[in-house]
Amino acid sequence: MLTISQLAAYAGVTVRAVRHYHRIGLLPEPERDRSGYRTYDAAAVVRLIRIHTLAGAGVPLARVQELLDAGPELFAGGVQEIDRDLRAEIRRLQDTRSRLARLAAGEHLALPRSVVDYLDRLRGLGVGARYMELERDAWIMIAAQVPQQIDAVIAQKHEELDDPDMVRLYTFFTGELDWPADDPRIVEIADILERLMMRAVEAGEMGDDGLDDQFVALMDSTMLKSAPGAERVLAILKERGWRGWTRVERVPTGQE
Q1: Quick one: what percent of the chain has pLDDT higher than 90?
Q2: pTM, whole model, 2 decimals?
């Protein structure tokens, strides 16, 4: 007959584990002998080894009892069910790891994949970190406002990046944004934006964007605060009959 320490040693577990299996009912506790000690037989060793084997294979302890007492057919079915649960959990963990890896690689929280890909394309054009932060934060807010439309909006943005004027526009944002009001780049930016807006009007692409006026005002104010030169750009465009930054519109006749 074996002591608890000997039992644990034969099964390759700790005494603490044996006592835990006693507490949760997986391993029956034997009666104490005349000296007050519990002693174990070979059947206890076999059962403990089976418990340890199942637990080591990833079977939840809550399911171990069921498998220990099952016949061959039920045992096989139980193992298959546990395997399905484990595969589902593995997929969930792999998805979590993938998200964490994207974050660690510089991709952004709260953005759908389509927007992340678009931002990566902007980085490939050499757009600077400060402007990329503005773009990222703007798209986080837009994606939250129009989640059902965001993929279509981004698809349109990719098409716009095929336009040399749009690519030229983004080359202005490779460095700092604190340009003085008389910086010659500001007039060139206004010229490019006007050409882009004229083409959008001609193509019928200036429709409803799904954003409310208060949200558009918030987006505009954020841009004006972050890039002082943007105010001068808007002033030039207004002189030419345009208004807005997030939502560009023709100024109705008589309101210029």
Answers
A1: 32
A2: 0.56
